[in-house]
Structures are given as C-alpha cells and as structure tokens.
Amino acid sequence: MDAAQARGAELRHGRVTGVARRATGSAAGGGEVDGELVRADAVVIALGPWSLLAAEWLPPPPLDPSELRMEPRSAS
C-alpha cells in the first residue's frame, strides 16, 4: 500500500454499495462508497468469500457461444 500511496493512490475505508459504470456502459468507472461516488481508473473486486455480493452490481458475463447446446423439443 505504501508504494501505491507514494504514486497517488488513496486508501478509503467505508462500505461499498455499488459499482459506477462509465458513460459507455462498457467498464466500471468507480464505486459507491458510503453513498458517495468515488471515480476510479480501475475497480478491483476482492471480497474473498463475499465476492458473490458484487454480482448484483454488475451485468452477467457474456456467454461463450461454444458453451451453448441446442436440442430439439420433444413432441409431447
């Protein structure tokens, strides 16, 4: 952390309640911390076992078409 702070990073304590999207909507542009928007060049989600909580802040990941399998419906 010392090295990051020496280069201008700021450590903020608080409760993160969301991820702010850039105007293009394609990337995170910051986060909501204690109700305040904190802009950032990058957002790292490192919540350990609580990382699933961040799923409600982000859209689902794109599907890989190779993972899809189509099967005909049964004629019932």
From TrEMBL:
Listed InterPro entries: FAD-dep_OxRdtase, FAD/NAD-bd_sf
Residue span, FAD dependent oxidoreductase domain: 2-65
Domain of life (superkingdom): Bacteria
Protein's recorded name: FAD-dependent oxidoreductase
Organism name: Pseudonocardia acidicola
Taxonomy of the source species: Bacteria, Bacillati, Actinomycetota, Actinomycetes, Pseudonocardiales
